[in-house]
């Protein structure tokens, strides 16, 4: 059967095929007939020749009369829409949200009323600063935008993988984004914060210090969308049927645990596979390994808000999970990729103001500003106020209103009545009981442009975050700051930034200054509120302390050569798959290798195209002869040296030793080097892999 939308019948094209015809230029083209539909113009007119424009003679000028050519080129010329001003590079998937228990005591939101109810959802993950075509592993915040198509309207939880934000007031959003995007005179750097404009703005904006610690941590280089948390950031309200309010913060927790890569690895992944994150999500969903997150809520009342150390309306602060435990209330499963990237992932329009009855906003000034911005941007991007007519944005529940006309209106009211009230009893009317009601908050005060004093402590939670990291993670933060500031040309900016770091943590500031060659140390920044020392470490803030319990969802790269042990490979594959992980073969040629039993093993990658940075752990399954040959290949030596430098577990056969030697890695360097002398060593290797990395090695490796 030919596909409905395309011309491919799946059969190889040959001149003997009845449906092929040789054109005037000798080219082959397929003709309609049988189950192959006729190509038409957008007006439905059948097309006779799609290979040649209409012209006078075979070498003469083209004719304006060629409506088919004009329509085709016209449409092509207008294929692009403006990319998102932020979060331009993203990747989406469909799925569902399943409610665990009724939350009726707290909210009347319909999707939270019935245990076990499934509600369709669409999620788009993104980076923030880079353009649509930028690479996936930039050091950046990741967007985590979820649209849940509830029976009472779409709920968009437009979050990030970081629970706080750079700024406290939406009026600063254009400034922070201008500062991080490519500098306007030169148009670079792309998808990077490592440049003067960004650090100039940041060093003049102390409220960003907490977020900066997150962005300089491994959170900003996640291994996979599947292994990161999502946060609604702001405090929202839940309202029950009596309109009683409970404050809430939303957190998505990945079932497969947290995992990040290291910076040196991120840089190399961007070269080896700029689509690393989208490919990862695509492969997981296409192979039936559906990623899953639990939606957790931190619930609190006004008394807690009043007694908390920080203002719950301040989006640069979080509530430690040790203080208010996140309670799981449902799960999100992504189980289907879009059929068309543009129609769904590109055209999806998320808006913070999309909340169903039972969920309400707080007065967080960032959230209030966002509620304006998201509607505005959709008009620019999608070109019409009718963007809700695009299927990905349309509610999946019944809806009825009197909005009409405008560009690309696909639905208009029918009949004579397009207003209310009307005396004909026609059309929809409001429902004060079912309809959305805002929390009846008493608000009074002068009209001012004033930041609350309760927003003034910019360093305490930055310090708490740093103190909550493991030693390797603290080292990564120092290295990231050093790298980023080393790209800043203006020394005063570097100094101003180090002055802030000295307030957050003296040793951190001093270490970064030392690595930057800054002597003497600048004076610590003046803090409006001195940072506190008494905030306890919060283990929930570390990636390493919240890793997975198994190696499920991870990938092993096996470097193979001719003569490699077929039996061992088979057992290794079985063990990897039993763990819920996947395995890919890397070989000198993509055609594969001949294993010890004479069987042909096709490879997923040739060695140059399958560096070890693409894998969570590696195995060198080599015959001695194969290893000897590979010693001459830089890519093979890098495969080993990088895996070692990135603290990965390395399994190897005896034959692989010459390659290890050439890569400068001792077979007994540490417990992360696992000799696979026989199948009995495989369970030990898999068990080690569950730890993901041997961080103890990092001290001996200069990254
Ligand atoms: Fe935003 C997109 C998340 C602050 C204005 N934002 C956008 C997306 C995410 C976030 C995930 C991509 C949605 C998608 O995939 O289509 N933004 C956040 C978070 C913020 C935040 C978690 C702080 C807590 N954003 C923020 C502010 C403003 C905006 C303060 C403006 C005042 N954001 C936008 C926008 C975008 C957007 C310009 C660009 C494309 C879009 O909305 O649809 O309106």
From TrEMBL:
Its cofactor is heme. The active site is at residues 87, 160. GO terms for cellular component: cytosol. GO terms for biological process: hydrogen peroxide catabolic process; response to oxidative stress. GO terms for molecular function: catalase activity; heme binding; metal ion binding. It catalyses: 2 H2O2 = O2 + 2 H2O. Its EC number is 1.11.1.6. It is an enzyme of class 1 (oxidoreductase). Keywords: Heme, Hydrogen peroxide, Iron, Metal-binding, Oxidoreductase, Peroxidase. Residues 40-428 form the Catalase core domain. The keyword Oxidoreductase applies. Heme binds at residues 84, 124, 173, 370, 374, 381. SMART domains: Catalase. It comes from the Bacteria. Transmembrane segments: none annotated. Decomposes hydrogen peroxide into water and oxygen; serves to protect cells from the toxic effects of hydrogen peroxide. Belongs to the catalase family. HPII subfamily. This is Catalase.
């Amino acid at each position: 059967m030919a596909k409905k939308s395309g011309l491919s019948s799946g059969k190889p094209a040959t001149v003997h095929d009845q449906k092929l015809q040789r054109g005037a230029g000798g080219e082959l083209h397929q003709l309609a007939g049988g189950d192959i539909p006729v190509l038409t113009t957008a007006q439905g007119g059948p097309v006779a020749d799609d290979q040649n424009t209409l012209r006078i003679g075979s070498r003469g000028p083209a004719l304006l009369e060629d409506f088919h050519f004009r329509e085709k080129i016209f449409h092509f010329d207008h294929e692009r829409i403006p990319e998102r001003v932020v979060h331009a590079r993203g990747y989406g998937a469909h799925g569902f949200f399943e409610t665990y228990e009724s939350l009726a005591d707290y909210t009347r939101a319909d999707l939270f009323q019935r245990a076990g109810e499934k509600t369709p959802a669409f999620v788009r993950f993104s980076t923030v600063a880079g353009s649509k075509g930028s690479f996936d592993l930039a050091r950046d915040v990741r967007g985590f935008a979820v649209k849940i198509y509830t029976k009472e309207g779409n709920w968009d939880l437009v979050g990030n993988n970081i629970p706080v934000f750079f700024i406290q007031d939406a009026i600063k959003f254009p400034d922070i984004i201008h500062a991080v995007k490519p500098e306007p005179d030169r148009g670079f750097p792309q998808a990077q914060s490592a440049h003067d404009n960004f650090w100039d703005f940041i060093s003049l904006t102390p409220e960003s210090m907490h977020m900066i610690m997150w962005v300089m941590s491994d959170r900003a280089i996640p291994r996979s969308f599947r292994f990161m948390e999502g946060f609604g950031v702001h405090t929202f309200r839940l309202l029950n049927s009596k309109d009683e309010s409970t404050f809430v913060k939303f957190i998505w927790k990945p079932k497969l645990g947290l995992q990040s890569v290291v910076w040196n690895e991120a840089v190399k992944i961007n070269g080896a596979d700029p689509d690393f994150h989208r490919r990862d999500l695509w492969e997981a969903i296409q192979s039936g390994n559906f990623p899953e997150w639990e939606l957790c809520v931190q619930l609190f009342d006004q008394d807690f808000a009043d007694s908390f150390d920080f203002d719950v309306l301040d989006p640069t602060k979080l509530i430690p999970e040790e203080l208010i435990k996140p309670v799981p209330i449902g799960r999100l499963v992504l189980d289907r990729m879009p059929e068309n990237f543009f129609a769904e992932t590109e055209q999806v329009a998320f808006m913070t103001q999309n909340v169903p009855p039972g969920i309400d906003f707080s007065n967080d000034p960032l959230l209030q500003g966002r509620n304006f911005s998201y509607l505005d941007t959709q008009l620019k991007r999608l070109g019409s106020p009718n963007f809700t007519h695009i299927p990905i944005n349309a509610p999946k529940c019944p809806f009825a209103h009197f909005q009409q006309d405008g560009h690309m209106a696909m639905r208009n009211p029918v009949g004579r009545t397009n207003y209310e009230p009307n005396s004909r009893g026609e059309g929809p009317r409001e429902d004060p009981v079912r309809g959305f009601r805002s929390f009846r908050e008493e608000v009074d005060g002068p009209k001012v442009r004033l930041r609350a004093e309760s927003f003034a402590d910019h360093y305490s939670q930055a310090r708490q975050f740093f103190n909550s990291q493991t030693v390797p993670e603290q080292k990564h933060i120092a290295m990231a700051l050093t790298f980023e500031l080393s790209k800043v040309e203006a020394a005063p900016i570097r100094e101003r930034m180090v002055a802030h770091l000295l307030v957050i943590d003296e040793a951190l500031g001093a270490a970064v200054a030392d690595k930057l060659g800054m002597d003497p140390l600048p004076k610590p920044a003046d803090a409006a509120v001195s940072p506190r020392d008494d905030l306890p470490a919060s283990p929930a803030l570390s990636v390493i302390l919240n890793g997975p319990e198994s190696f499920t969802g991870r990938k092993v790269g096996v470097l193979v050569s001719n003569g490699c042990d077929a039996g061992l490979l088979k057992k290794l594959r079985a063990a990897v798959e039993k763990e819920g992980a996947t395995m890919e073969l890397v070989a000198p040629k993509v055609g594969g290798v001949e294993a010890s039993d004479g069987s042909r093993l096709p490879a997923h990658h040739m060695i140059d195209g399958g560096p070890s940075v693409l894998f969570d752990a590696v195995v060198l399954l080599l015959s001695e002869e194969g290893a000897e040959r590979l010693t001459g290949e830089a890519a093979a030596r890098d495969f080993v040296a990088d895996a070692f430098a990135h603290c990965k577990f390395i399994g190897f056969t005896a034959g692989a030793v010459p390659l290890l030697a050439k890569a400068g890695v001792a077979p007994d360097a540490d417990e992360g080097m696992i000799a696979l002398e026989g199948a009995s060593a495989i369970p030990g290797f898999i068990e080690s892999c569950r730890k993901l990395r041997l961080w103890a090695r990092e001290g001996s490796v200069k990254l």
